[in-house]
Amino acid sequence: MLRLLFLLTCALALLASSVASAAIVERSFYVKNLTLRRLCSEQVVTAVNGSLPGPTLRVREGDTLIVHVFNKSPYDLSIHWHGVFQLLSAWADGPSMVTQCPITPGGKYTYKFKLLQQEGTLWWHAHFSLLRATVYGALIIRPRSGHPYPFPKPNKEIPILLGEWWNADVVGIERKAAATGAPPKISDAYTINGLPGDLYNCSQNRMYKLKVQKGKTYLLRIINAALDNQLFFKIANHNMTVVAVDAGYTVPYVTDVVVTGPGQTVDVLLAADQEVGSYFMAANAYASAGPAPPAFPAPPPFDNTTTRGIVVYEGAPTSATPIMPLMPAFTDTPTAHKFFTSITGLAGGPHWVPVPRHIDEHMFVTVGLGLSICPTCLNGTRLSASMNNFSFARPSSLSMLQAFFFNVSGIYTPDFPDTPPVKFDYTNVINAVNPSLLITPKSTSVKVLKYNATVEMVLQNTALLGVENHPIHLHGFNFHVLAQGFGNYDPVNDPKKFNLINPLSRNTINVPVGGWGVIRFTANNPGVWFIHCHLEAHLPMGLATAFVVENGPTPESTLPPPPVDLPQC
């Protein structure tokens, strides 16, 4: 009897500890116009709670996050919680017309979800039009109380959000691009925590400053919130130790340069171990397209400017001239590829999931540019983009998740192909302007998956209209990055390169320029999950599709009904 009582007491204590370690974190977002002065002029932008970046949300693993979004802006919008698994809470994922209709001006919606089985740095952003240029912020998930990091505890944690700035109305930029069929205007500046830095006009005093003490260690939570650019990031004379990416712990990796694609996060430890002084931190573009061969389409223009902040040691003389890091060349693909392929997952660490070995669904998916018919455009076509030659078009009358839950037909079609409709020499630039390969039909095609199915997907870049690196983001899941390489994927020899022991686990992969990447994940979350290129210029062009994951056999594997305040179209 005493033993039974003892066991019962222990069980209740364990339950109480688990409950006590999970909190409800509630915040309100007021989205409205904000006038900011940047680069010598004033610009009206859309922002959250009057700040750029928006508020940083800090939670612990296991917490429930509730965010009331009040749309006081003149635009439709929705908020996506980038990288959050949304286990049984797909209604809160946020991509407009995929999991919800947008929140109209004057409307509101409450996002409610649990942060489960993941720790680290994620972020939130608008998922409508180009509004995420200024509607974004950090989402930091710390371990539960009493659970340490799997690396030495830093003295301080600092979010570093890398963004882009336009001296123009970004919604107007997108509308013009849609009307003309041309690419959108490139940005005028990059920013660090909303500030462009002293290399831009009228920006001498608009530079982010990080104060450090010699001998202390700082956890920099780096977020690439840029719309259309992969970025190199360096701090003069300092190495950084990567300890996590996309809220997944890694084997510590020492580097002097961080490379991030739009949507990706990288956590690094920065040791203040240099001479007392001032050191610039800087970020500029990794423009993967590079120069075009003769007689082939020129690569798209990109913002070739540099943003910088400053790391200032306590006691540094104010008269000291900061040291500038030597940045990689814009087209330094070897440096980018080394960074992306050298980091491995922390097998056995917190929330580590082993690589699934049994595969239910094999997919080979091409990603790249093309053209679509446009009678009103100058040449009768507009730039387009596709996956397996299907250029994604969002529905307009009902969200895809509502159609899934209420079994409404006509919103999407379950016919996304497992392989390209036409096989060709995918990365050979001779096909860059092959007219028989360029036209991409518009559709809302999806891939339907059984609950708990394991998917292996080869993502193959093409050379159509040029070659470039594509950051592909999957909503609702992390995936294992088994391998990456250049050229056409070889189904005989490339699987021999797969890392099945400790591959990187993340939610956004940079598919190498003129190359391929292989990912694998288990579809253990019912709902509709977007997969798309996180270059914002390519998303409206249609470089996307979605997975429809069917309900499982139990209530714990079945999507619950939508919230009563879900926005309607």
Notable traits:
single chain; 569 residues; Immunoglobulin-like; 5 helices; globular; disordered N terminus; metal-binding; repeat; signal; oxidoreductase; hydroquinone:oxygen oxidoreductase activity
| CATH domain topology of the largest domain | Immunoglobulin-like
Name the CATH superfamily assignment of the largest domain.
Answer: Cupredoxins -  blue copper proteins
The share of residues in helices is under 10%
Give the uncertain stretches in residue-range form. 1-19
CATH class of the largest domain: Mainly Beta
- Helix/sheet category: mainly beta
State the end-to-end distance. 61 Å
Task: Tell me the strand percentage band.
Answer: 35-45%
Q: How many domains would you count in the coordinates?
A: 3
CATH architecture of the largest domain: Sandwich
Q: Give the beta-strand count.
A: 32
Strand order of the largest sheet: 10-9-12-17-14-15
| Total of helices | 5
Return the average pLDDT rounded to an integer: 93
CA-based shape: globular
Task: Characterize the biggest β-sheet.
Answer: 6 strands, mixed
Provide the gyration radius in Å: 23 Å
